[in-house]
Amino acid sequence: MQVSVDQEACVSSGQCALTADDVFDQRDSDGVVELLDADPPQGRWRDVRDAAAHCPAMAITVRE
Ligand code: SF4
């Protein structure tokens, strides 16, 4: 799995960091997403897929 984020599209909702805090974080200054792990282990794929599906800005891309 390869994960990427679009910081320009992100609206700082924080859903992704709540769903998978080992993969996504939020920038302290404005809450914009920060990618912690672009190649998460298979055990985290389900949560990463959920985070991408529920991102209100569709700012998370997952390639498998
Ligand atoms: S869920 Fe989407 S909009 Fe919200 S912080 Fe994460 S990437 Fe940004």
TrEMBL record:
<keyword id="KW-0003">3Fe-4S</keyword>
<dbReference type="GO" id="GO:0009055">
    <property type="term" value="F:electron transfer activity"/>
</dbReference>
<keyword id="KW-0479">Metal-binding</keyword>
<dbReference type="InterPro" id="IPR001080">
    <property type="entry name" value="3Fe4S_ferredoxin"/>
</dbReference>
<protein>
    <recommendedName>
        <fullName>Ferredoxin</fullName>
    </recommendedName>
</protein>
<keyword id="KW-0411">Iron-sulfur</keyword>
<dbReference type="GO" id="GO:0051538">
    <property type="term" value="F:3 iron, 4 sulfur cluster binding"/>
</dbReference>
<keyword id="KW-0249">Electron transport</keyword>
<comment type="function">
    <text>Ferredoxins are iron-sulfur proteins that transfer electrons in a wide variety of metabolic reactions.</text>
</comment>
<dbReference type="GO" id="GO:0005506">
    <property type="term" value="F:iron ion binding"/>
</dbReference>
<dbReference type="InterPro" id="IPR051269">
    <property type="entry name" value="Fe-S_cluster_ET"/>
</dbReference>
<keyword id="KW-0408">Iron</keyword>
<keyword id="KW-0813">Transport</keyword>
<dbReference type="Pfam" id="PF13459">
    <property type="entry name" value="Fer4_15"/>
</dbReference>
